[in-house]
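Weekly sync, protein design subgroup
Attendees: M.S., D.O., the rotation student, P.L. (late)

Item 1: inverse folding check
M.S. brought a backbone from last month's batch and wanted to see whether the design step gives back something sensible before we order anything. D.O. pointed out we never logged the input encoding, so this time it goes straight into the notes. Structure tokens as presented (172 positions):
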């Protein structure tokens, strides 16, 4: 099995996210933990660079949120949640990729939601699909209140959101 150093060496260069081969999803408990809301973002762009280190940026228009229920999606776009009129984009600025135990890797990044930026670490699986395609898959949890995403009527919505992504990049 290739180590992260092997993958980085083989992947040196600039990369562009392929949205139609990628996905960004979320899930959050609601109804006092009795149900789970799942959704996805239907639009996003990104680029990255690998070599001595890894950097990158993924931009997600918050208005592209889709849970399959239009009324809920409109509420998520409102000032109660994402406030897309004032804060149209969610961004993830990748600052590094570091190995961890058992050959796994972690992305170090800064997540910005509603204008609030917080450092995050994301455990990821990195796979070179072929010479020109790289796939990063991972998930992590955030506390909604840390980013000013409230919208919690009577304590119905759980405080933790799980964000997941499978991002496919092609070499420039």
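Designed sequence read out in the meeting:
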């Amino acid at each position: 099995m290739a180590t992260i150093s092997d993958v980085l060496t083989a992947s040196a260069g600039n990369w562009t996210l392929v949205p139609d081969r990628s996905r960004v999803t979320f899930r959050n408990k609601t109804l006092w933990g009795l149900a789970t809301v799942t959704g996805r973002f239907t639009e996003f762009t990104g680029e990255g660079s690998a070599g001595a280190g890894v950097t990158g940026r993924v931009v997600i228009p918050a208005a592209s949120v889709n849970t399959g229920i239009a009324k809920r999606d409109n509420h998520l776009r409102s000032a109660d949640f994402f406030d897309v009129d004032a804060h149209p984009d969610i961004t993830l600025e990748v600052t590094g990729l570091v190995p961890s135990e058992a050959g796994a890797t972690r992305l170090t990044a800064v997540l910005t939601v509603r204008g609030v930026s917080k450092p995050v670490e994301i455990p990821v699986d990195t796979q070179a699909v072929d010479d020109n395609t790289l796939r990063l898959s991972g998930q992590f949890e955030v506390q909604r209140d840390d980013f000013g995403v409230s919208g919690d009527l009577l304590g119905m919505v759980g405080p933790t959101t799980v964000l997941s992504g499978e991002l496919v990049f092609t070499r420039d």
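Discussion: Residues 100 and 147 are 27 Å apart (CA to CA). The chain has two helices and eleven strands.
Action: P.L. to compare against the previous round before Friday.
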